[in-house]
Amino acid sequence: MSMNNLGIVKRNIVRADKAAVDKLSRFGVATIHEAMGRVGLMKPYMRPIYSGAHIAGTAVTVLLHPGDNWMMHVVAEQLQPGDVVVAAITADNCDGFFGDLLATSFMARGARALIIDAGVRDVGELTKMGFPVWSKGISAKGTIKATLGSVNIPVVCAGAQVNPGDVVVADDDGVVIVPAAVAQQAADAAEAREANEGEKRAKLAAGVLGLDMYKMREPLEKAGLKYID
Amino acid sequence: MSMNNLGIVKRNIVRADKAAVDKLSRFGVATIHEAMGRVGLMKPYMRPIYSGAHIAGTAVTVLLHPGDNWMMHVVAEQLQPGDVVVAAITADNCDGFFGDLLATSFMARGARALIIDAGVRDVGELTKMGFPVWSKGISAKGTIKATLGSVNIPVVCAGAQVNPGDVVVADDDGVVIVPAAVAQQAADAAEAREANEGEKRAKLAAGVLGLDMYKMREPLEKAGLKYID
Amino acid sequence: MSMNNLGIVKRNIVRADKAAVDKLSRFGVATIHEAMGRVGLMKPYMRPIYSGAHIAGTAVTVLLHPGDNWMMHVVAEQLQPGDVVVAAITADNCDGFFGDLLATSFMARGARALIIDAGVRDVGELTKMGFPVWSKGISAKGTIKATLGSVNIPVVCAGAQVNPGDVVVADDDGVVIVPAAVAQQAADAAEAREANEGEKRAKLAAGVLGLDMYKMREPLEKAGLKYID
Amino acid sequence: MSMNNLGIVKRNIVRADKAAVDKLSRFGVATIHEAMGRVGLMKPYMRPIYSGAHIAGTAVTVLLHPGDNWMMHVVAEQLQPGDVVVAAITADNCDGFFGDLLATSFMARGARALIIDAGVRDVGELTKMGFPVWSKGISAKGTIKATLGSVNIPVVCAGAQVNPGDVVVADDDGVVIVPAAVAQQAADAAEAREANEGEKRAKLAAGVLGLDMYKMREPLEKAGLKYID
Amino acid sequence: MSMNNLGIVKRNIVRADKAAVDKLSRFGVATIHEAMGRVGLMKPYMRPIYSGAHIAGTAVTVLLHPGDNWMMHVVAEQLQPGDVVVAAITADNCDGFFGDLLATSFMARGARALIIDAGVRDVGELTKMGFPVWSKGISAKGTIKATLGSVNIPVVCAGAQVNPGDVVVADDDGVVIVPAAVAQQAADAAEAREANEGEKRAKLAAGVLGLDMYKMREPLEKAGLKYID
Amino acid sequence: MSMNNLGIVKRNIVRADKAAVDKLSRFGVATIHEAMGRVGLMKPYMRPIYSGAHIAGTAVTVLLHPGDNWMMHVVAEQLQPGDVVVAAITADNCDGFFGDLLATSFMARGARALIIDAGVRDVGELTKMGFPVWSKGISAKGTIKATLGSVNIPVVCAGAQVNPGDVVVADDDGVVIVPAAVAQQAADAAEAREANEGEKRAKLAAGVLGLDMYKMREPLEKAGLKYID
To answer: What is the mean pLDDT of residues B184-202?
Structure first.
């Protein structure tokens, strides 16, 4: 048994069910995270390079070393249409691991987005290309190609555990990971959660208070809330 | 006398004079802050979720606990048209305390904006709705409803002291608080400050130097400035 | 010999060759930084106040003190068309050293941009004016005019050494400094670097892998990369 | 009415009752903060320059500007034995506003500590002198003496509202502010809180679980906690 | 299958082999991390509350919510002599989740340390008690007891994946996690790594250069290193 | 002319005059920084790994890449007794570039300290050895040996420009760089500055106010300071 997974590329991974991914793509990150029980979020420092993007796809993971993007070329070969690359780094580093050439390659392979716990560059060009990236930062700093990492091993990316094949959903609110085994269940729960949101929204828009709609007055009073003039 | 103001909702607050608020709404945050003597700013980490918003209104304050947005529903009931909710947290926390449903409710009550020293979510939707928020961050992380905070007590939000009824002005430069008692005075001072800005701008655009327009050459020389070739 | 360069304005500086600056303006920050051997970048916290700006010009430097923008008026007089102001601060400070009036003056003198390791304000107005600024942050906080700094001395700005007359290139990826003496060489190297990018991009878009295009399979195998199923 | 309190030194302030301060000095910051209902803490970035110090005293406040410590000399004159200087800054700044000479002066006036939302220097010397400082950071950067701030006005320091005369308690856990009007009440509450801590500690040390001592098993089960093997 | 592991306490976990833990306790965090192939480290923001502590033990994990330490009492019951509590939080939060009473309880159960991706308090007392904590920060801020988390589920703590029963080693350099399954292998590798360190140290102390001892001159020259005078 | 200085080791550098270094070693960082006109400081995030160290020496510089400490072995050979290694990194990175073995080598060569804009490890051992390090952080994360940097080229370290041979002075307040050419002048100025500090300290200790000793009352009144009761 190996003490680490470095220098390994796993070719055959089990991707989450396509129907579940498609269904999850209809919901926002906040909704899915709530539907799962408030778990699965990456840290909020992960921000999109342009606003308005909303994607869902299956995770292909890559583990990189600070200042070294060699494995980005290795991961490209493992991509299938509908995949999202999730890149973790073995230590904090904000160099620009990814730019327009790699994006061209990823897009050609059918990738939908990159999620990277580090920096990216060519963001003007990436925006024009419409290839969304959620990253820790933007930096023009170039990287080297000297050290082996791994592809399709479990990684921790921006505080979230990600296994190859998990569903990644990302929008302007951030990034959430849905384990492949519960993708359908999470999609159903998200749908259920949204089902009566329209009704709630209509009530609130009509001036009904959440205090009444959610029946909070009694528990608040019980907790000791006092109104004074 | 209570050692703290927790668990209290003050219903009747004295809001700053409407005319003063309206007048203040014509000026930018930087101008008002300067007109008041360079005071009243929140920390610069408070950023708008979309650019171009510029609001002024009267503060309705709420004190929340980390990860708990229960009082957001309580504060909704206290809102009047023209109010701005100012939300402080008892400790640093960037969870998403506010989203599109609460925004719907706040808008229905006539609120103009939310200023929150924490995170918000549904920012794509909030942008479409045109409900501006200045916050410490964006996060999809959900919150619970378990602990009492307070409404309309004095709070410290992003480093600024805010009393209920104070004027809040916010734009792309940040957020400034104008105490209700000096709102008219601040508005007048802001107006006076801007009065001759047009003239100054015209001169500078024509190539006149600030060195000459502000008569700085003599004090600079006196301070010891040396020109060398 | 002076122990410091405070209180000095150097009037005659040698600006980088105009043709080299023009040529450099055709390339992105990442490309130039790579072409120079991965040097010259400012820290990635330097961000543009609006996206899409891309400028190149000759550095006129200014050294400021925390909370004091007096020298901004002094530097204005030293500007020539095509210059970019590079402002360093003697200690970390994010106050708003620069706003629309100074921008009007800088534009009237022909300046192309401001690069400042501190805060700026009036960013809404600056965006409308089309005067780009790369800064550490945005803050409405006003500054005083009390202490001498210097103009056109060598400075360290956001981690980069900048000499007066050096070329500054900035875009959505950040800011790079090209020493005047190697400006032409860097421009040529950037051109060479981009020469075959189109071809590479076409190949990658057609599905060719970087693994093959860059002939990485052998060195990866030699390094010990293992493929598993 | 003034729009700000700049340029003012208030000489006569009402200090919290000495007996209450003395009693509060027997308790730690965490205990007092809990006893007050979990309020009054400064941000946790406020750290002591050496460990083991534990002080209580009456606040004499000073408002400073970034990079300017002029008012530190003004505040010295207002100090009485048992006071603690609480220094707020109008914007984020970590310069070294305070060193061994000022500490000598403060000690001669009977001050017990400095709490400053900025930097200090000469920390080696201050440690030898036994003059404790809680600060945002340590920096050798010198400051100027050019701009008026104020003494003994209400300030926001590290996120806490501080009025002149309030009680300041500080130890290795941080800094808490007790409003003068509730000082005795807070001291009594802290005493009550600690009264049965010895008994609790003995039980826990003997192996009794908090689950049983605090009778948490039922509420946990009610909340849905499941034990699995 | 559950979408999350919230509200669960796993009682029976497989702890790493005691002999392997004991052997690992002889080595520093840096050595073990290197021996494993440079993996397993927590983020470097995890710092000990006092210097000089060096512990190894088996992980008992707990997942907490921001501002809520209820599960700390639940985890106490699951502790066995030689365990180390590893506490993860569902979102960034630096409140003081742990103090001297809980430490008394943990010590009574035989716990060797706490590793927590949040804040602690009573650090003066904890230091006197000799109960080491590695944490993200120090804060007196109290927490509530309202929401269920979990005990002995896999968690991500400070960027590291931790499974119940894994080995935790911590010293002044930080914290490393050794999966239970490779504990013996890692201990052997650490031992092998240290075996010839004494010899190396003696050579270096005698003035032999790493350049020669590690035979780096040739690869450096090959890489293009140039010596100039 | 080269566009960068990468891959170069300069062997013969002109070190600052030994007598000047010795004299500077008698003064603290704050005093020297003031004596030079408030210039030369590194950023305050540079902290000693243990308190109480106070060193002065001549800078031998090294430029490293993120996650790569190869050049640390190259710089060791260039060290002479009395030198201080100043290590800059081409991008932000906090890995542990330096530990006890390298420290053994540096000490054997007569080096007095390491100043590094990155992380170090083995800090417990380094403390026992008495080899002081001022760094950006502490991290056990190991580095590789793959990319050429340079030795004895001008570098920017933690915001300060450092040329080989410059004087480095460091203590608990931070790190200051004195250019070799003004070392004697700075030492004399520091001496002059300290000359009458004893007298000042005695006066302040006797209760004389800085207001009177520095004759500040008149300028404060002129600036508009008002005393109220």
So the answer is: 94
Residues F163 and F59 sit within 8 Å (Cβ to Cβ): yes
Euclidean distance between CA atoms E58 and E179, whole angstroms: 10
Report percent pLDDT > 70 for chain B.
100
Q: Pick from F166, F176, F116: which is nearest to F13 by CA? A: F166
Alpha-carbon distance of A89 to A67, in angstroms, equals 9
Which of F66, F94, F141 has its CB closest to that of A67?
Answer: F66
Phi-psi region of F44 (alpha: psi -120 to 50; beta: other; left: phi over 0): alpha
Do the two chains B and F touch, given a threshold of 8 Å on CB pairs and at least 3 pairs?
Answer: no
Contact pairs from chain A to chain C, CB under 8 Å: 107
Residues 6+ apart with CB under 8 A from D34: D193, E142
Cα torsion angle, F77, E224, F117, C4, sign: positive
Helix, strand or coil for residue A44?
Answer: coil
Segment E76-134, tens digit of pLDDT: 999 999 999 999 999 999 999 999 999 999 999 999 999 999 999 999 999 999 999 99
The mean pLDDT of B12-39, rounded to a whole number, is 97
B18-to-A64, B56, C26, D37, F226 alpha-carbon distances in Å: 57, 10, 53, 36, 33
Residue B67, burial from CB neighbour count under 10 angstroms (0-12, 13-18, 19+)? buried
How far apart, in whole angstroms, are the C-alpha atoms of residue D57 and residue D107?
13
Give the A-side interface with E, CB within 8 Å.
1-4, 6, 35-39, 41, 43-44, 90-92, 154, 156, 159-161, 181-182, 185-186, 189
- The token duo for A154 is 């479990």
Q: Closest chain A residue to E45 measured between Cα atoms?
A: A92
Cβ–Cβ < 8 Å for D82, D21: yes
Answer whether E197 sits within 8 Å of F12, measured CB to CB: no
Nearest neighbour of E156 by CB, restricted to A6, A91, A160: A160
Contact C121 B30 (CB under 8 A): yes
**Of the candidates B30, B47, B224, which has its C-beta nearest C122's C-beta?**
B30
Q: Using the beta-carbon criterion (under 8 Å), do A124 and C171 form an inter-chain contact? A: yes
Enter the DSSP assignment of A26.
T
Cα separation, B36 vs A126, in Å, equals 44
Provide DSSP, D23-70.
HHTTS-HHHHHHHTTS--BPPTT-EESSTT--EEEEEEEEEEBTTB-H
For the packed helices D100-108 and D70-77, what is the interaxial angle rounded to 10 degrees? 10
Q: Where are the beta strands (DSSP E) in A65-173?
A: 83-89, 113-120, 133-138, 150-151, 155-157, 160-162, 167-171
CA–CA separation, B190 and E212 (whole Å): 71
d(CA E145, CA E152): 19
How many other CB atoms are there within 10 angstroms of residue D215's CB atom? 9
Phi, psi of C160 (to 5 degrees): -110, 140
Please tell me which of the candidates D37, D43, D160 has its beta carbon nearest to residue B4: D37
Q: Report how far Cα A159 is from the mean position of its chain's Cα atoms.
A: 11
Q: Which residues of chain A have pLDDT under 70?
A: 1
CA distance D171 to B208: 56
Contact C90 F160 (CB under 8 A): no
Helix then strand then coil, in percent of chain C rounded to 5, is 30, 30, 40
In the numeric block, which tokens belong to residue F88?
A: 């800059």
Cα–Cα distance measured from residue D157 to residue A204, given in angstroms and rounded to the nearest whole number: 39
Chain A residues near any Cβ of chain B (below 8 Å) = 28-30, 33-34, 38, 41, 44, 47, 51-52, 54, 171-174, 176, 197, 200-201, 204-207, 209-211, 214, 216, 220, 223-229
Helix residue ranges, H only, chain C: 18-24, 29-35, 70-77, 100-108, 123-129, 183-195, 197-205, 210-213, 217-223
CB atoms within 10 A of CB C141: 25
